[in-house]
Design a protein that fits this description.
Largest sheet: none
Number of strands: 0
Distance between the termini: 31 Å
């Protein structure tokens, strides 16, 4: 795989993870309001866990054979740990910890997705844009 294709694969994996976490938030609300909410949330949990594992795979492929930074491997592994804790909390029916952790995971995933798609400054190696306050050097 080329560096461009591994970067694209990683972005897709992060996007899928973020989308599944949003789906989980939606189905959590359905849990309270409908009879089929529990089924959707349960299926969504499995898909979210799979998306998180896909992110780990994409990050490793971008790092080792792709020659990229090992930082996404740390991020993706952290998400996998959080997803594992989230599954355990959900199975144990501990919403006081399960819900805030889900919100945290969604927020972190959105931040990670934003970091992965932000254009990189050639000399600084950091995202550019108005929200970062960093401008590229000439």
């Amino acid at each position: 795989m080329t560096e461009s294709s591994t970067r694209t694969f990683t972005r897709i994996a992060i996007g899928l993870q973020t989308l599944t976490l949003f789906f989980q938030a939606t189905t959590a609300g359905l849990l309270l309001a409908t009879s089929y909410g529990e089924t959707l949330h349960s299926v969504g949990a499995r898909v979210m866990y799979g998306a998180t594992m896909l992110y780990v795979l994409a990050a490793v492929l971008a790092w080792k054979p792709g020659g990229g930074s090992p930082r996404p491997v740390l991020y993706s592994t952290g998400f996998l740990v959080l997803a594992s804790v989230q599954v355990v909390l959900g199975i144990a029916h501990l919403p006081a910890a399960h819900v805030p952790l889900g919100v945290l995971m969604f927020g972190l995933s959105v931040l990670d997705l934003g970091r992965s798609v932000a254009p990189m400054a050639p000399s600084a190696g950091r995202p550019t844009g108005a929200w970062t306050g960093i401008s590229p050097r000439s």
